[in-house]
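pls design
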C-alpha cells in the first residue's frame, strides 16, 4: 500500500465525505435539542399562565436567557422578546423563529396565540394540548429511529464485507492489495467496485432516511 498513490487519493476523497457526515450528524443533534427545548418551553409557558400570568409576561419570564439553550437562536429569540415586551406581532415573530430546524412547534404556538387574541380562547389549554401533541410526535419519531437502527446497521455491515474479503485473501496469500493497487485489472476492479459500493451504501441509507421523514 505504501508504494501506491491510490490509498492517498482515496483518503483525500474521503476527507470531505467524512466532514459532510459529521456536519449532518451535528445538525441532526441540534435539531433534536431545539425540538426538546420547544416542548419544554411550551410546558413552562402554559404553567405560568395557569398560575395567573398574562401571555406576554409568561412568554418573557420563561424564555431562557441563554440563546443556545432556548427554543430559538439569538436573532429570532430577540425578536420574540421584543414583540412580547413592546406589544408587537408575537405570532409573526414566532413564525419567523419556527423556520429554524427543530423549532417547527413554534408554529403551533403562533396559531394558538392568534386564536387566543382574536377570539378570546384559552391559551393555556391550547398550549397544553400542543405540548402533548409535540411530545407524542417526538416519541413516535424516536421509536421509528430505534426500529430503523437494525436496517441502518445491516447496510453498514454489508458495506464492510469487501474489507473482510480482502483480509481473507491476504490470509490465504493471494495478495489482493498488490493486485488492486499495482495492476491494471485490479485498478479497474477497485474503481468499479468502489463506485458500486458507494452507490449501494447511499441508496440503502436513503431508503432509511425517507422512512424516517415519512
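designed seq:
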Amino acid at each position: 500500500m505504501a508504494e501506491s498513490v491510490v490509498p492517498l487519493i482515496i483518503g483525500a476523497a474521503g476527507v470531505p465525505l467524512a466532514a459532510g457526515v459529521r456536519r449532518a450528524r451535528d445538525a441532526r443533534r441540534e435539531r433534536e435539542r431545539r425540538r426538546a427545548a420547544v416542548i419544554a418551553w411550551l410546558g413552562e409557558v402554559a404553567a405560568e399562565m395557569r398560575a395567573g400570568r398574562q401571555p406576554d409576561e409568561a412568554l418573557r419570564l420563561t424564555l431562557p436567557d441563554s440563546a443556545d439553550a432556548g427554543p430559538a437562536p439569538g436573532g429570532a429569540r430577540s425578536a420574540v422578546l421584543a414583540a412580547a415586551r413592546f406589544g408587537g406581532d408575537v405570532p409573526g415573530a414566532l413564525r419567523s423563529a419556527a423556520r429554524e430546524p427543530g423549532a417547527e412547534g413554534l408554529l403551533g404556538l403562533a396559531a394558538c396565540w392568534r386564536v387566543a387574541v382574536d377570539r378570546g380562547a384559552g391559551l393555556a389549554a391550547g398550549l397544553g394540548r400542543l405540548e402533548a401533541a409535540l411530545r407524542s410526535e417526538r416519541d413516535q419519531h424516536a421509536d421509528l429511529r430505534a426500529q430503523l437502527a437494525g436496517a441502518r446497521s445491516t447496510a453498514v455491515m454489508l458495506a464492510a464485507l469487501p474489507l473482510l474479503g480482502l483480509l481473507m485473501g491476504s490470509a490465504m496469500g493471494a495478495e489482493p492489495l498488490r493486485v488492486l493497487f499495482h495492476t491494471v485489472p485490479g485498478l479497474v476492479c477497485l474503481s468499479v467496485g468502489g463506485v458500486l459500493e458507494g452507490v449501494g451504501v447511499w441508496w440503502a441509507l436513503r431508503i432509511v432516511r425517507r422512512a424516517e421523514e415519512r
